[in-house]
Amino acid sequence: MRKCKMCKEKISGRIDKIFCSNYCKSDYHVKLRRVNSLATYHIDKILHRNRSILLEILGKSAQKKKINKKILDEKKFNFSYVTSFGLNSKNKMYHYVYDFAWIKFSSNEILIVRVS
Ligand SMILES: [Zn+2]
Prior knowledge:
Elements: H1 22-58, E1 64-68, H2 69-74, E2 84-87, E3 93-97, E4 100-106, E5 109-114
Antiparallel strand pairs: 1-5, 2-3, 3-4, 4-5
Residues 4, 6-7, 9, 19-21, 24 line the site of zinc ion.
């Protein structure tokens, strides 16, 4: 017997139904979204802050800029959080932060790149 994923009541009707009603379906998704938001809030905040810092340094239209790592340290840029990684043709590691990336250029230099 199939039971509702939310209230555990018996389900009737279509074989692929997982909720007994629209109420249970909606309630399930509202609660899932709430739990998800609580779990991701802290990391999202760090990533958004990192992106803001890169945008602030690069400005509205520059494609790339090499800066001293100290500038990012002073702005409390968090190097531990990125949205993805990738290697370029010169085998340099791109650390993506949404539509920006940073590359360790030397021990104290960082290259910031606008990706889009
Ligand atoms: Zn239900």
